[in-house]
Amino acid sequence: MTDRSFAKDIGDEAGSPAIALPRPQRHRLRTIVILALLGGTGYGAYATIHNKATATGAPPPSISATILGVKAAQAKTQNVPIYVTGLGTVQPFNSVTVKPRVSGQISDIVFTEGQLVHAGDELAHIDPRPFLSPLHQAEANLAKDQAQLNNTNADLQRITSLAQKGFATGQSLDTQKFQLAGLQATILADQAAIETARTQFDFATITSPISGIAGIRMIDAGNMITPSDPGLVVINQLEPISVVFTVPSEAIGHWAVGRPTSIVPVTARSPDNVRLLATGDLSLVDNHIDPTTATIKLKATFPNNDHVLKPGQFVNASIQSLLLSDVVTVPSSTVQQSTSGSYVYLVQPDMTLAQRPVTVARVAGDTTIIASGLSAGETVVTDGQYSLKPGLKVSILPNDAGPQKIADRTSAAQ
Q1: What span, in angstroms and rounded, lies between the C-alpha atoms of 379 and 350?
Q2: Contact call for residues 86 and 267 (beta carbons, < 8 A)
Q3: Within-domain flag for 47
Q4: Where would you find the membrane-spanning parts of this chain (predicted)?
Q5: What phi-psi label fits residue 6: left (phi over 0), alpha (psi between -120 and 50 degrees) or beta?
Q6: What span, in angstroms and rounded, lies between the C-alpha atoms of 12 and 65?
Q7: What is the gyration radius of the CA atoms in the chain, in angstroms?
Q8: Total domain count for the chain?
């Protein structure tokens, strides 16, 4: 067929006069028509084969089934301790601001900042000279009054002897006795004055009232100091040491106030809960609840031999408030939430998933206590639940395997 006759045929099929096309356009049009005819022939052959395969019940070729790998754990029965944690502040077991009892000029300071001092150790000295004069004067008065007492006592003995012989009246004898009694009272007053003066003199030496660590010195030698001043130094007892913390009152509602009747361990951790700082024992449950916050204060005592706990430090203090026995537990990552409540993905014996509603009794860290809906020994999915759905077939991965791996891919029957 020539190009012209081909163009004529096309024009006849359209019911219109033939249009003479340029040679390049005629070649393109011919190619399109040929490809269209070949495509129609191929589709017809495919439809015939497909219909025959369907009629004989043969499955489509190259269709594969996927089994999804998941991490899982078994629900189990166990005893679960319930812990309650509160933010606490470290406090020294004893704390004393050392102040002088007398006024004067500090002559020297004999302690070092940060030093461990014991009760009775000397810390500083105040110039003692102003306290010597009253002491010497009181001692002189005692000596003078003692001499008068001795003389009066001798006179009393003489008058008593004369009165026995009838040479002295009873009145003179009584008068001498009264003078002797008065001088004895004066002697007692003189002794008290000496004790007072000696005490003031002793107060010129400032000593530590407790054993502990000396802090930063608040005054230097050469300065005047009085009892009303801020003080010389603060001494804190660090061994043992205390932690006062608050917890919800409901958490220990079954406990009595006061000192606990048994040993209750307490752990102190850093505020970020990363480091365990110390372990001690509960020493006191406060005798009232704060009505504004519904919390109660607890006090714990720690040996603190390494001085890791320091006064004023914030810590997280934890105690075991309750022990739940023989309860069904699962890892906390197992339990999911929806608008209808809590649920878990249960791995059934045929390795398919089922969505099981559960009732959560309590969450204790990484462990969740199930009140109902699950029995011990049943297997539940612990990771990757967002990609799961009921009826999906799964295989259980080792705990150290990556999540959501394809565990098996099998081909269907050919």
Answers
A1: 12
A2: no
A3: yes
A4: 31-49
A5: alpha
A6: 56
A7: 51
A8: 2
Hey, which bits of 102-256 come out as E strands?
104-109, 116-117, 122-126, 205-207, 212-214, 224-225, 233-248
* Domain assignment of residue 342, given as a range: 70-75+335-411
State the DSSP H helix or E strand holding residue 140, giving kind and residue range, or none if neither: helix 129-165
CATH of the domain at 377: 2.40.420.20
Peptide bond into 240 cis (omega under 30): yes
Position 30 in a domain:
yes
Q: Please return the burial class of 408, using the count of CB atoms within 10 Å of its CB with bins 0-12, 13-18 and 19+.
A: exposed
Predicted model pTM: 0.64
Per-residue pLDDT of the chain (414 residues; tens, 9 = 90+): 444 444 444 444 444 444 455 555 555 656 665 665 655 555 555 555 555 544 445 454 433 356 888 999 999 999 999 899 999 999 999 999 999 999 999 999 999 999 999 999 999 999 999 999 999 999 999 999 999 888 888 888 887 887 787 777 778 878 888 888 888 999 999 999 999 999 999 999 999 999 999 999 999 999 999 999 999 999 999 999 999 999 999 988 888 999 998 899 999 999 999 999 999 999 999 999 999 999 999 999 999 999 999 999 999 999 998 888 999 999 999 999 988 899 999 999 999 999 999 999 988 888 999 999 999 999 999 988 888 889 999 988 887 655 444 334 333 333
Does residue 246 belong to any structural domain of this protein? no
The whole-angstrom separation of Cα 123 and Cα 1 is 128
Rounded to whole angstroms, how far apart are CA atoms 271 and 292? Answer: 24
Structure token digits, residue 140: 């002189």
Indicate whether 330 belongs to any domain: no
